Amino acid sequence: MSATTVSVILKDYLYKLAKEGKRQDGRTLDSYREIEITPGVIDSAEGSAKVKIGNTLVYAGIKMQIGTPYPDTPASGVISTSAELLPIAHPDFEAGPPDESAIELARVVDRGIRESGIVQLDKLCITPNEKVWMCYIDLHIIDHDGNLFDACSLAALAAIYNTTVPNARFELGEDCPLPLLPEPPISCTFVKYGGIIVADPAIEEEQVAEARITVATDEKGDIRAMQKGLNGTFTFSEIKEVIKMTQDKGAQIRKMLKKA
Amino acid sequence: MGGKCDIELIDKKGKRVDGRTPEQLRDVKIEVGVLHGADGSCYLEWGGNKVMAGVYGPREAVPRRVQNARRAIVQCKYNMAAFSVDERKRPGPDRRSREISKVISEALEAVVLTEMFPRASIDVNIEILQAEAGTRCAGLTAAAVAMADAGIPMRDIPVACAAGKAGGHVVMDLGKLEDNFGEADLPIAIAPRTGEILLMQMDGHLTPEEFERAFQLAFDGCIKVGELQKKALMEKYAKAVPEGNGNEAAKEE
Lengths: 260, 253
Fold this sequence. Notes:
heterodimer, A: 12 strands, 30% strand, B: five-stranded mixed β-sheet, 10 strands, 28% strand, globular
């Protein structure tokens, strides 16, 4: 992501538009591109979802396996999230082990799910100290046109709500849905450039951005996770504005997720 | 191959476990130009296989030591999603996917007019989202369509299909159980206009007569899938360019 060189013309153009409070694709500052959520697209996964935000396309797949718990949480299941920035998604992505942006992406998505506690890990324990369910969330990024953070978080959530614990396959009784809380926190990402803050950045906006922030809020409007990125800065009043926008957008997106 | 199972892979009436006849393909669905970022792309479903292919290039080959001063190279990356199989696959390339990437690269390179682009690379990415036997054939078939969509000059559109032996019968396009418990698998890729063989692998056990029959079935399968490739491309580009000459179309826009 970071290696991309941006033409001076594009940068000047976006900054000029920013001065008038406009964006290149005509969206208002706080609006999202069209969001499409399709759960259950992969039969080989225990849960899956395809999410499109504009042209950005991400698949999330969940595999459930049995493993040993961590010694400090002997009676809890394990969640692990990984993201692959595939070379198919963007001309600058290269095959190979995840680079730092893929790791940051996976960790932000992971925190959004783990810290919110929506997956009830204590119910994923089979035998304390010995056997627990391991829930692997894999994010397959197929087309990158900006805002992978939100696309991946949303895909991971949609896949989680689509997941069946394959008890029968491991002779542990009947299959059941993953034990979940009903209300997920929703992440919204914003970038700042030329003095404006825009929601759901397209790839060009990310490329010229000075600073980026992702905020997750729950159904009550409480803040559940945050991550600031890039070398620019935000003021406290900007952060408050971003939180407010996240509460509004988050509520809309939560509705879409429930409907999907 | 060679695993043991109690399932009858083919019944007395000649029906296979998934209900197909020995000469029948699984359903194949092809969509062209589905990705925004890639220069050419294709989404393909082949039975339970779900494959996305995206092509970038021709562009400068990196690192420089892989460049060929006389011609372009085709660099294919075949990659399976962790969730594409029953038992989670660890992300990243393994020996199997490296080998498949290599044989597909070579098969595709055989039809590209590589001498037109010295020092360039045509980067072909194949993502297996869901796997159910025959992913290399599905992947190559999708990649060929994506290359055509990217406008890569080619002598032909490669296409692949497998045949093999299951339950003592030679059958076209092995399904999952047939692949796991059958006696032989023969995936091939051809250039359909000339019949040249671009890829051929085989494992298991076939008599020379059975091999000939299997090859014929795989070849027939290739021809059938080749028609679907062309149909999918026509569907996209017939819409993109209305009938009549190009000028009219330009005016309309």
